[in-house]
Every structure is written in structure tokens, then in C-alpha cells.
Write a structure and sequence with these properties.
- By secondary structure, the protein is α/β, with parallel strands linked by helices.
- The chain has 17 helices and 16 strands.
- It has helices spanning 28-41, 55-67, 81-90, 107-114, 118-133, 151-163, 180-193, 213-222, 244-253, 255-258, 269-280, 301-309, 337-346, 356-369, 375-386, 430-442, 486-507, and strands at residues 9-12, 45-49, 72-77, 97-104, 139-144, 168-173, 201-206, 227-230, 329-331, 373-374, 393-401, 409-416, 419-426, 447-455, 464-472, 475-483.
- Strand 5, helix 6 and strand 6 (168-173) form a beta-alpha-beta unit.
- The two termini are 26 Å apart.
- Bound molecules: 3-methyl-2-oxobutanoic acid and zinc ion.
- 3-methyl-2-oxobutanoic acid (KIV) is lined by residues 17, 102, 142, 144, 170, 172, 174, 205, 207, 517.
- Zinc ion (ZN) binds next to loops.
């Protein structure tokens, strides 16, 4: 991929490093939906998974490779023949395939984890890149734990893999240990001293353990990096990875300082953030820069006064520039199909990807219960539809009663494989009662790992969005449900999770998790 020196390539690893975030595991359908949004967002590279780690991961990479056409699609691989062969196979249908090979280079990792000498690691890296290059042209090489590695040794390793054909050299701060001045200096040293370094794209991959991932990535860019590896909402291993929305908007908002650009369509940032949060159930903190609920909210009187007089007094970015609409009050009960479709288009939703009959039907039912329908309500409706697994179970009716003197009681009617089934029972709370009855009727008794409820918009008639994470026999699935009644939303989320769990258990029965990065 040829890019000018003024463009910073955005490498999105939401589907690989992001998925290593506790509770963020996604199935093939979910990853495909996210990948489509990433393409719309304009990221340059998508790291779709670690193909050798499980058949599920292999399938996900292969599906993403066939789904998107503009970005490079990569699979991660260790310096092993099996890893590289699986990675090659997984991306073979991609329009722009690539392989991302990594091995650790710090003495700590060499001595305590790999039990290899520096020479052995150097040989393994060179062999792996040379081997992969025979099959795929686009090879990225990463020196895991680079920020704690000996600088001269890094130069030696990078020079060798460049000789073997690596076109992108990634320098990870795997443990989030670096500080900006030091990380910037490392890039200066590497880009100046590595033989062949002028022929490759230098890349920064940072973790956020000390809250410096974005600052470190920007320091790398100031010192020659032209690729940033990041994730939507900054999800990722431990404290997460560099947040895509923060680096992209920093580069854009401070163009006067960086004199750089990215290919990201910034208006797609908020839809991407919401979609990921809905799919994974990982909520975005209200004070998260760019995409948090308070990111553009002005509370103090003096600030409100200033903003009313001139937005620039307290706003360095316009909410519209990241896809947060200021015209939030949109539709109501009397809005027709045309207005509905029009609004979805305005929100950047591809109408060909939406089952319009279903989505419009859901909108009408919501409008019956809720006076004002906001953009976020519409996004919740369509994203919930788009990540819905083919349904074995369908919730037809739910009646729940609760009082201060009796146990909460739920009566549930479901359709299972086309047949109607009913059941009822008590629970410790209303959600507990309906989850127990749904489990009895379906015969699926997963462990509820996580349950989260969030009001999407304001007011007592706000649409409540419930996401839950369930697990059974080592297989996990998330479920989402949106409704003005949170108990109904909870039941919809649980049934959605059961459908996905059933689909995954059938599909991935062969799956064997492997040692990851
Ligand atoms: O953090 C890290 O070192 C990684 C590598 C595999 C690139 O994720
Ligand atoms: Zn990482």
C-alpha cells in the first residue's frame, strides 16, 4: 500500500487484540458486522484474528477477508510453520491479504518465556518472514515487548526481517510501560539506524496500562511512525489498546501541530463505537473522550453561556464531526417508512444491510410506547437486528409480576424451532424469574457471566438496552435487547444470547483454544 508521508495508516486490531479484552469475545457474525463498519470507517488495515488459535478464529478471519474489499486483512501468526500456513489459508480470499508475524525480543521474554537465545529468536524471525513472503507479499513483523528490549538488538532483528521482505515494522509497547519521550526516542533511533528502515512503514502498537497509549502512539508518529495500531473504544488486553477515536481526532483536531492526516471518515466514529459496545456489551464510560455520553456535554453555567454565544469557546471539535448528531429529536409515531429510511441513511446506515420490514416494524412498536424516537434509539434498533443470530428461540410473550409481599413470578411463551412452548415460575427478582423460566423451556442452562442495563436516551420512557454474557461448557455468547421496559429488554437479550450460544456450540464443537500472544 503506497501512502504519502503526510498520511498515518490506521491499523485496527479490535477483532484481535481488542477481542482479548475480558468479556469481549465475538462470534463470526458479530465480527463480520464490525468489519463492515470498520471498512465504512475507512481504516487501512484490519487485523481480523489469530487464525491458528481456534477453528472459530480461523473462520472469522476467513469471513472478514471475504467481507471487506478496501482494507488489508491480516491474520496474526507466531514464527511457526503451522501458524503461518493457517494464517495464509485464512486470508487467501482477501482482496488485499497480509500476514502479521511476531516474536518477543526482550531478554526477559527470551529467558523466562521462550527459553531461547537472542540468536535463536533472530533466526526464527528471519525464517518466518522469509517463509511467509513466498506466499503473501504483505508481511508485517512485530517485536513483542519491544519497549523493554535492547535497542541495538532490535536494530539487528528488524534489519534481518526487512532483508527477508517485511514491509511494515511494528514496535509494540506490549505491557504499557513506555513514556512518550522515551518511546519517541526509540522510534528516532530505530528509523535512523536500521538498515533498510527507509523502505518500510514504521508502526506503533501501544497498551494503556499507565494511561499513555495514545500519547505514546502520537510520540511515535512525531518520530517517524506512519501506522498506529488501535482499537475502537480502546478495548483490549488488560487496560486496553490505543483508542482509535482518540488518536484519529487528535491528529485531525491538531493538524496545526502534527501536519498529518488519516483516511478515517470521522463521522463513522460514533456509529462504530456504539456498534462495538452493543455487540460486546462493554459499555463506554460517560467521560470517555470523543465517544462518551458526556464528551460534548456542557454542565457549568459559564460554559453553557459561552457555548450559546459561540461554540468555539469551549468546543474543540464539533459533535457532528464524529457522527454525534445535534439534531437528535427525529421521529415519532406518525413518521412514515420514507422518513425512517431517510433518517437511517443520514446516520450512515447502509440500507441494503438492514431488514427494512423488521426494522420498521420494531420502530413502529417502539413509537407506540415512546413519544420521541432519538437517533440512538434508531441505532439500537438496527444494530440489534444486524447482529441477531438465526433464531431457534423466539420470545412471543412475557408476563412478570412482582410485589413487596410475593416472590417475583414470570410466565413465558416462546417459539422453539417453530413450535410454541410455555412455562412459568418464581425467582429472586423479576429478571431472575424470567431467565429461570426461559432456561427451563429451552433446556439451556448457561451461567450468566455479565448483565448490564443502560438507558439509551433520556426520560422515563427511554429505551433500555440490556446486554448479557452467558457461558456454557467453555463457550460464551453475548446477547442484546432493547425495549422501553427493561425486563422485556432483559428477556430479549437472554433469548438472543441463547440463540448465539446454540449456534456457536454447534459450530465450534471442535474449537481448541491455543496459547495466544
Ligand atoms: O501487544 C503486543 O505485543 C501484541 C503483538 C502481538 C503485536 O499484541
Ligand atoms: Zn497488543
Amino acid at each position: 500500500m503506497n501512502m504519502d508521508r503526510e498520511t498515518v495508516r490506521i491499523f485496527d486490531t479490535t477483532l484481535r487484540d481488542g477481542e482479548q479484552s475480558p468479556g469481549a469475545s465475538m462470534n463470526v457474525e458479530e465480527k463480520t458486522v464490525i468489519a463492515r463498519q470498520l471498512e465504512k470507517l475507512g481504516v487501512d488495515v484490519i487485523e481480523a484474528g489469530f487464525a491458528v488459535s481456534s477453528p472459530g478464529d480461523f473462520d472469522s478471519v476467513a469471513r472478514v477477508a471475504q467481507t471487506v474489499s478496501r482494507p488489508i486483512v491480516l491474520s496474526l501468526a507466531r514464527t511457526r510453520e503451522l501458524d503461518i500456513n493457517q494464517a495464509i489459508k485464512s486470508v487467501e480470499k482477501a482482496t488485499h491479504p497480509g500476514i502479521h508475524i511476531f516474536i518477543a525480543t526482550s531478554d526477559l521474554h527470551l529467558q523466562r518465556k521462550l527459553m531461547m537465545s537472542r540468536q535463536e529468536v533472530l533466526d526464527a524471525a528471519a525464517w518466518a518472514v522469509g517463509f511467509a513472503k513466498k506466499h503473501v507479499d504483505y508481511i508485517e513483523f512485530s517485536a513483542e515487548d519491544a519497549s523493554r528490549s535492547d535497542w541495538e538488538y532490535l536494530v539487528q532483528v528488524f534489519a534481518e526481517v526487512i532483508k527477508q521482505g517485511a514491509v511494515t515494522i511494528n514496535v509494540p509497547d506490549t505491557t504499557g510501560y513506555a513514556v512518550p519521550d522515551e518511546f519517541g526516542a526509540l522510534f528516532k533511533y530505530l528509523t535512523t539506524n536500521t538498515p533498510g528502515g527507509d523502505r518500510v512503514c514504521w508502526s506503533a502498537h501501544c497498551h494503556n496500562d499507565l494511561g499513555m497509549a495514545v500519547a505514546n502512539s502520537l510520540a511515535a508518529v512525531r518520530n517517524g511512525a506512519r501506522q498506529i495500531e488501535c482499537t475502537v473504544n480502546g478495548i483490549g488486553e488488560r487496560a486496553g489498546n490505543t483508542s482509535m477515536e482518540e488518536v484519529v481526532m487528535a491528529i485531525r483536531t491538531r493538524h496545526d501541530f502534527f501536519h498529518l492526516r488519516t483516511n478515517v471518515v470521522s463521522e463513522q466514529i460514533y456509529p462504530a463505537s456504539r456498534l462495538l459496545s452493543q455487540v460486546t456489551g462493554l459499555t463506554v464510560p460517560a467521560n470517555k473522550p470523543i465517544v462518551g455520553a458526556n464528551a460534548f456535554a456542557h454542565e457549568a453555567g459559564i460554559h453553557q453561556d459561552g457555548v450559546l454565544k459561540d461554540k468555539l469557546t469551549y468546543e474543540i471539535m464539533r459533535p457532528e464531526s464524529v457522527g454525534i448528531s445535534s439534531n437528535k429529536l427525529v421521529l415519532g409515531k406518525h413518521s412514515g417508512r420514507h422518513a425512517f429510511a431517510d433518517r437511517l441513511k443520514h446516520l450512515g446506515i447502509d440500507l441494503y444491510e438492514v431488514d427494512m420490514n423488521k426494522a420498521f416494524d420494531r420502530f413502529k412498536r417502539l413509537a407506540d410506547r415512546k413519544k420521541h424516537i432519538y437517533d440512538d434509539d434508531l441505532l439500537a434498533i438496527v444494530t440489534e437486528e444486524s447482529v441477531r443470530a438465526p433464531d431457534r428461540f423466539e420470545l412471543l410473550q412475557l408476563d412478570v409480576t412482582s410485589s413487596s409481599t410475593t416472590l417475583p413470578h414470570a410466565a413465558v411463551r416462546l417459539r422453539i424451532d417453530g413450535e410454541e412452548r410455555c412455562g412459568e415460575g418464581d425467582g429472586d427478582g423479576m429478571v431472575d424469574a424470567c431467565y429461570k423460566v426461559i432456561s427451563q423451556i429451552t433446556g439451556v442452562f448457561p451461567k450468566l457471566e455479565r448483565y448490564a442495563v443502560k438507558a439509551i436516551t433520556g426520560g422515563t420512557d427511554a429505551l433500555g438496552e440490556v446486554s448479557c454474557l452467558v457461558s456454557q461448557d467453555g463457550v460464551t455468547a453475548t446477547g442484546q435487547g432493547a425495549h422501553t421496559d427493561v425486563i422485556q429488554a432483559s428477556a430479549l437479550a437472554f433469548v438472543n444470547a441463547l440463540n448465539k450460544l446454540e449456534a456457536r456450540r454447534t459450530r465450534y464443537r471442535r474449537a481448541e483454544p491455543d496459547e495466544g500472544p
